[in-house]
Amino acid sequence: MKRLAIIGAGDLGQLIAHMAQETYEVVGYFDDTKTVGEHIDGIPVLGGVSALDASFQEGLFNSLSVGIGYKHFGFRKMIFDRYLNHIPFANVIHSTAYIDASCTLGEGIVVFPGCVVDQYAQLENNVLLNSGCTIAHHSRVKEHSFLSPRVAIAGFVTVGACCNLGINTSVIDNIQICDYVQTGGGAVVVNDIENSGLYVGIPAKFKR
User: Fold this and answer.
1) Is 144 among the catalytic positions?
2) Which domains does the chain have, with CATH numbers?
3) The pLDDT of residue 70
4) CA–CA separation, 42 and 119 (whole Å)
5) pTM here?
6) pLDDT tens digits, 145-173
7) The one catalytic residue among 72, 94, 137, 138
8) Going edge to edge, which strands form the sheet with 152-153?
9) β-strand partners of 200
């Protein structure tokens, strides 16, 4: 069984740890804000982020997951890019999620229960799909993006990098969303989004 370490021992990191135990031995967290030796639901805090390299070289773990949420996108992206091609990133996918065999997956993917990823869809590095998301055929979610529960994306859609789509966001087919876009809960995207920012409402409109 692969030995998994998680960066971040907050709420998201704990959710990933709980889910990952289906297929991984979760050896511990690395978190600069927690006390070394502290246990969270039986899983220890092994050190701060600076201890990752030495712990990996010692063989303490052999795969890594990022448990940093959308409120810290800059750090989430930076920490992934720092260790990509240096430490293997795990794809943590719940057993109830369906991902078609034709899909293309990057590294460090996290897919929560009940998600559906249809034929020829693409999930790039460090993408997270929260519970109940649907990604229809031939759609692409670019790196570091974070989809909240029950986001529904129709076919031939591209979601840019570092996007955060709010709970119950719907995106109709053939839509292009640029990088660094956030949508409010329940937003319905019916037109291409070409400028970064927050979009809310039905149909989704720029707010700030």
Assistant:
1) no
2) 2-83 (3.40.50.20), 92-200 (2.160.10.10)
3) 87
4) 38
5) 0.95
6) 999 999 999 999 999 999 999 999 999 99
7) 137
8) 98-99, 116-117, 134-135, 152-153, 170-171, 188-189
9) 205
